[in-house]
Amino acid sequence: MDRLFSGMQPTQDAHLGNWLGAIRNWVALQDRYECLFSVVDLHALTAPYDPAQMPVRVLDLAAAFVACGVDPAKSTVFVQSAVPEHAELAWLLSCHTGLGALERMTQFKDKSGQHPDNVNAGLLFYPVLMAADILAYRAKAVPVGEDQVQHLELAREIVRKFNRAFGETFPEPQPILPKGAARRILGLDGNAKMSKSRGNAVALVDPPEEVRRLVGGAFTDPQKLRRNDPGRPEVCNVFTLHGFFTEPARISAIEKDCRSGALGCVDCKRELAEGMIRGLAPIRERYAAVRADEKSLRAVLHAGAERARGIARETLSLVRERMGLVEGGRKA
Ligand code: ATP
Ligand code: MG
Question: Would you name the residues annotated as active-site residues?
């Protein structure tokens, strides 16, 4: 089986975009690939964070993976910082990554705009660490949302450069994207992508009253000002979200009634919130059970790190040899 890697940052609770754009695909691909899924805590250091909260967030996110259907018996679930080879490989790869390419990355530009007083080098370096995450396992497939496609293109560029310089070492990793709107779920602002760091997200574990409050505040078609104004479902993010939580027959009726003005945005959002609450209920329930059993969760992560480390160590030993970093390892 080909190997597959994907990661998620323990910045905030996983949200609808993370699930529809990434985790749902992870779950579906578990039987077809040898999968590694990582809580990428080293990536999360690039944004302001509370060190006391980090270990809690790591367990929260690992529990969310399992609650969504990632099966630790099939897939390797681990924390990035438990495998130091990621950081080492990132350095080695950085010497084969153009500075200009890093500066052109959309995520770097977005995030430096989000916290202009904390434009750290880690933010710029992020795609190199991501390439290392994937290449440490010589993974061929990477299920991600559309926002990560550019980083994967860069990872492939790094691979080509590396293989040319040192001989065929890594395969070129390919993204696996979900179909349709799930590639890029918009936030409740209906404008930017749903993001943990933007505060425009519905978390998978938000309680029902919070889901109602958040969806109630979601932006709809800006031209539909009054209840009976005709709306345009094709520009409305609430309508797009119905696509994931509402029966197809009911979606057609919503579309028709929105266009005619028979359905107002308030009612439309109420219905979406209830559908979302129902759709997320199984995840929320499993999450509560998985998260409550910290001992088992830690055991999963521990075993996962051992397995991951075994593979990454092998890759790094090959990479060091190819790059001529052998002297320190020679016997006297
Ligand atoms: P942050 O704002 O801290 O970067 P995030 O919400 O972007 O957080 P990440 O941990 O960076 O989440 O991304 C994890 C995975 O979720 C990636 O594969 C990414 O492509 C996917 N993803 C994130 N947001 C969305 C979205 N809005 N739609 C589809 N996929 C998404
Ligand atoms: Mg992100």
Answer: 111, 193, 196
Alpha carbon of 74 to those of 48, 221, 292, 311: distances in Å? 34, 43, 22, 16
**pLDDT recorded at residue 273:** 98
Q: Which two tokens stand for residue 305?
A: 């790190």
How far apart are the C-alpha atoms of 51 and 49, rounded to whole Å? 6
Tens-place pLDDT, residues 212-252: 999 999 999 999 999 999 999 999 999 999 999 999 999 99
Q: Which two tokens stand for residue 248?
A: 């197809």
Atom of ligand 1 nearest to the CA of 18: 16
Are 96 and 165 in contact, with CB atoms under 8 Å apart?
yes
Question: Could you tell me how far CA 273 lies from the centroid of its own chain?
Answer: 23
Question: What DSSP string describes 232-281?
Answer: -GGG-HHHHHHHHHS-HHHHHHHHHHHHHT-S-HHHHHHHHHHHHHHHHH
Atom of ligand 1 minimally distant from the CA of 197? 2
Where is pLDDT greater, at 309 or 48? 309
21 close to ligand 1 (CB < 6 Angstrom):
yes
Q: Ligand 2 centre and the CA of 247: distance in Å? A: 30
Q: Using one digit for the tens of pLDDT, what is the confidence trace for 56-65?
A: 999 999 999 9
Helix (H) or strand (E) holding 179: none
Cβ atoms 131, 94 nearer than 8 A? no
